[in-house]
Amino acid sequence: MRIQVGGLSEGIHEYEFEVSSQELDLGESFSGSVFVKASLDKSVHQIALQAAISSTGHFACDRCVREFDLPVKTSYRMFYVMEGGDEGAIDPTEMQVIPHGVSFIDLSDDVRQTVTIGIPLKLLCAPDCKGLCPECGKDRNTEHCSCSTAIDDSRWGGLERLRQNETSE
Ligand SMILES: [Zn+2]
Ligand SMILES: [Zn+2]
User: What pTM was computed for the model?
Assistant: First the structure.
């Protein structure tokens, strides 16, 4: 995912990439294409990049373990400064230096990292997934069971434990 920046005129330049997730080494949760729309704003001393990424991951639901596809849409920005140039007040986490003699930038590592960070911590097949019954193990989205623990929302359970800890101190 390289962009030639040597000799690029000043101003806005748009690019679109489609790479396979294998090529990008995104791991086995991803199998299709990764789409990247990049916008470069080149000025005398630096290049500002804005990239929007869209891909689809394949995950197992945290509640019901069913496998599902999840669109992962994310974006990042990056400033590129020529080696020896003025880095100014740019946040170092959003800045890369282009070494002398190099005339391109490679987006692959940043795209891979951004997609990986963009995967939600809580992976649910649907926001209201009912999960598995803790007693009989049936998938409550598709089956009914007559177990006594009709609703066991673990979020409230956690809050309850928190309260008990507070009062016991
Ligand atoms: Zn689920
Ligand atoms: Zn049950």
Answer: 0.78
What pLDDT is stored for residue 161 in this prediction?
Answer: 54
Rg (CA), the chain: 23
Is the pLDDT confidence value at 80 over 90? yes
Domain limits of the chain? 2-118, 130-169
Distance from the CA of 136 to the center of ligand 2, in angstroms? 4
Per-residue tokens: 164: 């008990």
Which ligand has the minimum distance to the alpha carbon of residue 127?
1
> Which among 61, 55, 50, 60 has a CA at the least distance from the CA of 73?
55
Instruction: Give 60 Cα–ligand 2 centroid separation in angstroms.
Output: 21
What digits encode the pLDDT tens for the residues 92-120? Answer: 888 999 988 899 999 999 999 999 999 99
Neighbours of 111 (CB within 10 A): 23
CA of 67 to the centre of ligand 1 (A): 8
Closest ligand to residue 150's CA: 2
d(C-alpha 47, C-alpha 10), whole Å: 9
- Spacing, Cα 66 to ligand 2 middle (Å): 17
**Looking at the CA of 140, which ligand is closest?**
2
